[in-house]
Amino acid sequence: METNHRNKPFARYADDAVVHCHSREEAERLLKSLETRFAECGLELHPTKTRIVYCKDDDRQGTHTETTFDFLGYTFRARRSKNKYGKFFINFTPAVGNKAKKAMQQKIHDWRMHLKPDKTLEDLAHMFNPVLRGWVNYYGRFYKSEMYSVLRHMNRALVRWARRKYKKLAIHQRRADAWLGRIARREQKLFVQWQMGVLPGTG
C-alpha cells in the first residue's frame, strides 16, 4: 500500500483493513494487486470477508449488491442524518454493529446481577459504570441512540436485581420498573445510562 497505492486512504487493525477507492474499477484493480502481493508472501485474502462495498448515500446513488460492511465493531451503511440547518439527508456513516450489541448484552447477562442481592444500587454502579462508560465512549461516538438497546438491557437487569432483593417487588414487574424509575429520576447521576436519559420504564 505504501509503495503502490499511496493515494488510497487505508486503515488497518490486526488482520482487518479498509481501503477507500474512487471507483469500482479502481477497487477491482486494487483487489487484484492485493491478491498478487499476498500470494507472493504465501498468504491469501479471506475469500468471503474480502468485498468491494459501495458507500451509497445522497451523493452516491448508484447500485451495487454490497452496500454495508463491519469494521472494529461498527456497521457502516447509509443512515438518515440531520445537518446543522435541521435538514435531513442520507449519509454513509458508522454506528455500533449488531454483533457488538449482542456481545455487550451477553456481558451484562454474565454479570448475573440478580444473584447479588447483598449489593446496593451504589455498589452495582461502582462495579459496572466503568465498563458501561467505556462502551458508550467507544461505540457512542456515532449515532449514540444505537446504544440505547444495550442500555435498556442494563436497566432490565437492574429491575431483575431489585425483584430478587426486595420481597415486595418479587412478583410485580411493573412495580419494580416504577420503583427503579423513581430512583433513576431522583438520582440520575448514579448510572451511566440514566445520565444519558435512558431510564427504567421508558421503553
Question: What are its keywords?
Answer:
203 residues; two-stranded antiparallel ribbon; alpha+beta; 6 helices; 14% strand; 3-stranded antiparallel sheet; 5 strands
Can you give a write-up of this model?
- 42% of the residues lie in helices and 14% in strands.
- Helix 2 (98-111) runs parallel beside helix 4 and helix 4 (148-165) packs across helix 5.
- The chain contains 6 helices and 5 strands; from the N terminus they run E-E-H-E-E-E-H-H-H-H-H.
- The longest helix has 19 residues, at 121-139.
- The chain is of the alpha+beta class and 203 residues long.
Walk me through the topology.
Elements: E1 10-13, E2 16-19, H1 24-40, E3 69-71, E4 74-82, E5 88-96, H2 98-111, H3 121-139, H4 148-165, H5 173-186, H6 192-195
Antiparallel strand pairs: 1-2, 3-4, 4-5
Helix pairs in contact: 2-4, 4-5
